[in-house]
């Protein structure tokens, strides 16, 4: 019996205009009344997710930063961190790549050292509610432990910076998170490990979980879930491994699939 549902945000819960379905919040309340918990599972910052779901955030679970931060409402259940020295090489490489920018992710906020690229800044603010500019990210690591680098290259991440950054796979999982983003993070941390932490916290078997996703940073989430749903608009690799394919994010796919699954 499904007791926990986890759904990705961009390309899954959010439509192509970055809007949540007006049916979602009432559905989450209905599920909670039946004892079923709902989690947003995203590469987005926790503060961003909490603000997005502010109306019902205290009733929700959050797998933020692709699994590096796990919350029940405002209660932090898990917060990852990595040695500062791990980040130096990738940041130096990113600085040398034309058209590529980076966000340094910590549990106190996110940081950038370039604010003269309006497309990057706009996209960074879309995913990071708490975002500040510092002169030097490497120097900033002396004051604040970090857990992730989010690397932005508009429309070219899969063929541009991703292959270059895979040289750091000895220390990081180098994950393609979308058409524009690559994440470098703890190889033992992902949305799937976040789902396991939530299931353990709730005291339920992982088989009693259901998950929705659309992109390659959702692979572990869907692989670990008891029932895995890929979006019709999803990456082909994800659709091949999922238990089913549901209507696209522009067709209210998650809400429709949950209603059908629970006969709501």
From TrEMBL:
GO CC term, one of those recorded: cytosol
Pfam families on file: Hydrolase_3
GO molecular function, one term: phosphatase activity
Protein name: HAD family hydrolase
Species name: Butyricicoccus pullicaecorum
